[in-house]
Here is the input.
Amino acid sequence: MTNSGARKYKIAAIPGDGIGREVVPEGMRAIEAAGRRFGFSAAFETFDWSCEGFLKTGRMMPEDGLAQLRPYDGIFLGAVGYPGVPDHISLWGLLIPIRRDFRQYVNLRPIRLLPGIEAAVRNVAPGGIDFCVVRENNEGEYSNIGGRLYSGTDDELAMQQAVFTRRGCDRVMRFAFELAKTRKQHVTSATKSNGIIYTMPFWDERFAAMAREYPRIRTDQFHIDILTAHFVRHPEWFDVVVGSNLFGDILSDLGPAVVGSIGIAPSANLNPEREFPSMFEPVHGSAPDIAGRGVANPIGQIWSGAMMLRHLGEGAAADAIERAIEAVLGSHGPRTADIGGKAGTREVGEAIAAEVGR
Ligand code: NAI
Ligand code: MG
Here is the structure.
């Protein structure tokens, strides 16, 4: 069954390591099912870049890897990282170059309590927790400016610069405010301007300036320490939470932990201007402890696929995948061990794909 003239997307799939290789095919299965129903096709090209590859070639990706990815409409990543290869190599050799060179300055993580999932916090109904963390993904505390002196002596020291630019703050904050316009009209800023006395007051100033441009959006801000407590005690307070690279990183793992298994949580690395492909990946890593057994939860990957379709303009297909996830979780459908079931990765993936096609 071909429908010529249908919308067609070229997707670069990077399964990576460990369970990445097991969950990416399930993400593809759901996307393909959505394509059949909504009249588009996704042409996946698989790139076998991984830590295993690094051990053979000394590189996480080829020298021209970014140029190879550039023409694609989206990048669908599993996870990278494996025992035997230091994490900073897998991160700085693949993920960070893609995020930075492709100006994916927004890391977006939706945090929603789904039906059939027991939250780590008590007395919340499905839908009672529904917010997004918008993490700055290109600069901030994760810079490679710095150095070490006098290694191995008593005078040894290490320094690392945090980099906050007006352009970098403004663009991620603007994304957060635009997102809030489509949701509950509320943006929270993560700060620490009492302790970090140059960059964080600057962040606060930019936040206040942006808030003035969006008078209809309610704003507040919390220091990161008490904000982590509020995430656990009052997750229902939040709508869109914007934070620097470091604070956003921490919050965007804490958020999914509050609403259940890390195996469910999705994320998007977005270049909102679409000058470059954006990248979609589950929050979890390669899970070496369960890899190779076909028991990983594929939902984080499948939900990330829905985020990719939404970014590509296939909102109805994205909604259908999210509803299918909720239907399978909320009914007595198959579930993996991390959320109290016995099913395998593929069984869950097939159940969701079947639901998407319904
Ligand atoms: P992890 O997320 O891989 O695993 C943490 C725990 O959660 C493990 O017990 C694992 O079995 C469980 N888990 C994770 N995903 C699951 C799923 N889909 N279904 C069921 N259980 C799941 O984090 P960890 O162990 O800290 O890191 C392992 C490797 O992954 C490291 O090399 C790390 O650098 C890499 N990593 C890569 C990321 C990426 O590619 N973006 C993100 C996080 C970690
Ligand atoms: Mg993290």
In short: The pocket of NAI (ligand 1) is lined by residues 19, 79-82, 87, 95, 262-263, 281, 284-290, 296-297, 300, 336, 338 (CB under 6 Å). The mean pLDDT is 95. The first helix runs from residue 20 to 38. The radius of gyration is 20 Å.
